[in-house]
Amino acid sequence: METREPLHTEAITGVILAGGRGSRMGGVDKGLQNFNGVPLALHTLMRLSPQVGQIMINANRNLSAYESFGVPVWPDSASLGEYAGPLAGFITGLERCETPYLLTVPCDTPLFPADLVARMADAMARENADFAVAAAREEDGQLRAQPVFCLMGVNMLESLARFTQAGGRKIDAWTAQHNTVIVPFDRPGDEVHGFFNANTLAELHQLEARQP
Ligand SMILES: Nc1nc2c(ncn2[C@@H]2O[C@H](COP(=O)(O)OP(=O)(O)OP(=O)(O)O)[C@@H](O)[C@H]2O)c(=O)[nH]1
Ligand SMILES: [Mg+2]
């Protein structure tokens, strides 16, 4: 198979997923919780901005607080019902994206790699894949996919609309229908906790202590 042209990061829009219920954090709006004094979504925005051409936030509550960060903010459309899960955020991102590619990043994983996008874009172009999905080494030594870190072409919207309209809600069940490259972030020098996500306040505080 022919290898694609290199995928320039300016062609990628990053969407910060902050639209969840945050139930394990007591129902708070997770993206607005402070991480070392900075709201998680803003921290994510600062880490992601240098890596992509465009950026937006997907949130479903406190929209004006998110708008104060200075990038477009889009809530989920009502089509899947309230809080349908991360794929609702993927749909919102794909619908609002004005570049050929979309990268999804959750708001609760503040130490994600500074070279996330470059490595995912390289792998996607090299393998001529429909999706690139990040993966990290777990404590048990297994490589585990992090499907919420997902790079795709905007032409995937039609497939996602079909999948979700049929009741599908799991990211990996959807990406498995297409050609997906898994991108491991386990090189020497990669942050071991790069994909740790804060689902509870205790986890958030543990991560604050780990920031270099
Ligand atoms: N747009 C949108 N994003 C969601 C939804 N549910 C989860 N997410 C996002 O998906 C990512 C992973 O979510 P989780 O950490 O599993 O879920 P959460 O809703 O934030 O928290 P819990 O309710 O504790 O599971 C986060 O970035 C969430 O903001 C949703 O219904 N809509
Ligand atoms: Mg989470």
TrEMBL record:
Binding residue positions for Mg(2+): 108
Primary location class: cytoplasm
Record: residues binding GTP: 17-19, 30, 58, 76, 108
Cofactors: Mg(2+)
Cellular location(s): Cytoplasm
Gene Ontology molecular functions: GTP binding; metal ion binding; molybdenum cofactor guanylyltransferase activity
Residue span, MobA-like NTP transferase domain: 14-173
EC numbers: 2.7.7.77
GO cellular component: cytoplasm
Catalytic activity: Mo-molybdopterin + GTP + H(+) = Mo-molybdopterin guanine dinucleotide + diphosphate
Keyword field contains Secreted: no
Biological processes annotated in GO: bis(molybdopterin guanine dinucleotide)molybdenum biosynthetic process
Alphabetical UniProt keywords: Cytoplasm, GTP-binding, Magnesium, Metal-binding, Molybdenum cofactor biosynthesis, Nucleotide-binding, Nucleotidyltransferase, Transferase
Top-tier EC class: transferase
Taxonomy, superkingdom: Bacteria
InterPro entries per UniProt: MobA-like_NTP_Trfase, Molybde_CF_guanTrfase, Nucleotide-diphossugar_trans
Assembly: Monomer.
Entry's free-text remark on domains: The N-terminal domain determines nucleotide recognition and specific binding, while the C-terminal domain determines the specific binding to the target protein.
Matches recorded under PANTHER family: MOLYBDENUM COFACTOR GUANYLYLTRANSFERASE
Family: Belongs to the MobA family.
Known role: Transfers a GMP moiety from GTP to Mo-molybdopterin (Mo-MPT) cofactor (Moco or molybdenum cofactor) to form Mo-molybdopterin guanine dinucleotide (Mo-MGD) cofactor.
Protein name according to UniProt: Molybdenum cofactor guanylyltransferase
Organism: Polaromonas hydrogenivorans
Name of encoding gene: mobA
